[in-house]
């Protein structure tokens, strides 16, 4: 087996950075910084856990299973769970939330600053019509052009952000104001939940195989070594993402006194660019982000169509799925960026804990082994609390139940009531499997 050089590990780290560095995610750190104000550092620590750390652990978990994560999920939980999770995943990072967001983000940052208020609705309709028309065309005509454009745009976008960051530190927008809302009393947990919005943990279960295969192509083949390289390369990605997200949060934290409290991070970032560089800066960033979002949109629609075409055994054609996906994304994008974000929050609050628990447990699978009840009990219990948290985020509350759970379940009041019950359920599952689950013992004998 070939040992990877430091240069090759650096290359993998940069590749992972380019995968997770999406233009659509640029809007969340500035919004966090503006709302968190003086508590931005603590809030950003929570954001980095779910927005950067957990996605990298997701890729590591896939590497530990040799890239065969679906089969692993089928074996450890229930046959339907892997399919259900992947369906939800491809819809979420596809036409339901992430793809409409690419159109909305590129409009908010690149086009909105040049339009009068009375022309915003029509302007967004026309822009997204062309944006998703281009998405459809590119997804229907697979070629290397979109990959080449994407590879050029990532450095271009990063270079522009470096210039923006330097400018923001040399001549700050204003003073850092006090925290607002939930960031006053629980900045870390609020930042932790804000990281859900990146959807990168969900995406890591889809793109993890790409990273694993890239490492294997360089001569490292055993799962343990591949996992180790993922972790080492991950530190490079974490360092770069911390710099990018941290700098964006700083811009947001210093913006409130100048820009006021805006609706979303897209408007905030556009306002900052306008102040620092004027209309010329807005035009440049509009061009870069529009193309960057277009490459992302095309890739997500193509991936979604490929998966559902495979799931249907070719009964639903790739072309029909691309048509449906782009049409739905076009309609959804026109409800506006703020509304897309608001609608996605309850759903992500409900689904993210399930993925977190499964990824963390799979990292310890060498210790858990044949004790399948650890996974099943932890997932089932997490599902109950995650659904309650999701309903609460949607404004659907049960006062008596909420009062009881807040009093007796740790962290329930900050939206993380699933954490301790999941740990307890995993421990109970361990004991049950070890002493009473005869079927698990038979599985152990079979596997040995």
CATH-assigned homologous superfamily of the largest domain: Amino acid/polyamine transporter I
For the secondary structure, the number of strands is 0
State the share of residues found in helices, binned by percent.
over 70%
Indicate the radius of gyration in whole angstroms.
Answer: 22 Å
Q: What shape does the CA trace take?
A: globular
Mean pLDDT value: 87
**What oligomeric assembly is this protein in?**
single chain
InterPro entries: Brnchd-chn_aa_trnsp_Livcs
Pfam family, one: Branch_AA_trans
GO molecular function: L-isoleucine transmembrane transporter activity; L-leucine transmembrane transporter activity; L-valine transmembrane transporter activity
Transmembrane segments: 9-28, 40-66, 78-100, 120-140, 152-170, 201-217, 229-251, 283-309, 321-341, 347-370, 377-396, 416-435
Q: Can you offer a commentary on this structure?
A:
By secondary structure, the protein is mostly helical. The protein has two domains: 6-345, Amino acid/polyamine transporter I (Up-down Bundle); 364-448, no CATH class. It is built from 20 helices and no strands. Helix 3 packs antiparallel against helix 11. The longest helix is centred in the middle third of the chain and has 47 residues, at 265-311. It is globular, with a radius of gyration of 22 Å. Keywords: Amino-acid transport, Cell membrane, Membrane, Transmembrane, Transmembrane helix, Transport. The chain crosses the membrane at residues 9-28, 40-66, 78-100, 120-140, 152-170, 201-217, 229-251, 283-309, 321-341, 347-370, 377-396, 416-435. Component of the transport system for branched-chain amino acids. Its main location: membrane.
């Amino acid at each position: 087996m070939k040992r990877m050089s430091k240069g090759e590990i650096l290359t993998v780290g940069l590749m992972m950075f380019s995968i997770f560095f999406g233009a659509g995610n640029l809007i969340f750190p500035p919004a966090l910084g503006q709302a968190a104000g003086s508590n931005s550092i603590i809030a950003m620590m929570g954001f980095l856990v779910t927005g950067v750390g957990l996605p990298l652990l997701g890729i590591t978990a896939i590497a530990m299973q040799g890239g065969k994560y679906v089969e692993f999920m089928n074996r450890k939980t229930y046959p339907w769970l892997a399919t259900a999770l992947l369906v939800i995943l491809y819809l979420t990072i596809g036409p339901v939330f992430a793809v409409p967001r690419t159109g909305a983000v590129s409009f908010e940052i690149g086009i909105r600053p040049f339009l009068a208020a009375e022309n915003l609705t029509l302007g967004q309709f026309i822009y997204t019509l062309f944006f998703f028309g281009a998405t459809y065309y590119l997804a229907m005509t697979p070629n290397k052009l979109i990959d080449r454009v994407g590879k050029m745009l990532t450095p271009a976008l990063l270079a522009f952000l470096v210039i923006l960051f330097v400018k923001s530190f040399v001549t700050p927008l204003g003073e850092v104001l006090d925290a607002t809302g939930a960031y006053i009393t629980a900045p870390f947990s609020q930042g932790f939940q804000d990281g859900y919005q990146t959807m990168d943990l969900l995406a890591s279960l889809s793109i993890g195989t790409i990273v694993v295969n890239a490492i294997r192509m360089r001569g490292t083949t055993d799962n343990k070594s591949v996992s180790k390289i993922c972790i080492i390369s991950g530190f490079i990605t974490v360092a770069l993402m911390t710099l990018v997200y941290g700098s964006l949060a700083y811009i947001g934290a210093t913006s409130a006194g100048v820009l006021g409290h805006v609706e979303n991070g897209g408007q905030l970032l556009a306002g900052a660019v306008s102040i620092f560089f004027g209309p010329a800066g807005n035009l440049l960033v509009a061009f870069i982000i529009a193309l960057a979002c277009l490459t992302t949109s095309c890739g997500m629609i193509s991936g979604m169509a490929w998966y559902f075409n495979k799931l249907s055994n070719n009964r639903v054609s790739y072309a029909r799925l691309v048509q449906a996906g782009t049409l739905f994304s076009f309609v959804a994008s026109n409800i506006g960026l703020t509304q897309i974000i608001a609608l996605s929050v309850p759903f992500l609050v409900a689904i993210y804990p399930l993925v977190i628990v499964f990824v963390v447990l799979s990292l310890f699978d060498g210790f858990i082994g044949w004790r399948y009840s650890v996974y099943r009990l932890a997932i089932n219990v997490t599902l109950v609390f995650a659904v309650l948290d999701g309903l609460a985020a949607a404004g659907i509350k049960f006062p008596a139940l909420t009062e009881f759970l807040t009093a007796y379940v740790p962290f329930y009041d900050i939206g993380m009531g699933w954490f301790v019950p999941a740990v307890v359920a995993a421990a109970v599952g361990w004991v049950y499997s070890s002493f009473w689950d005869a079927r698990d013992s038979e599985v152990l004998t079979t596997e040995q």
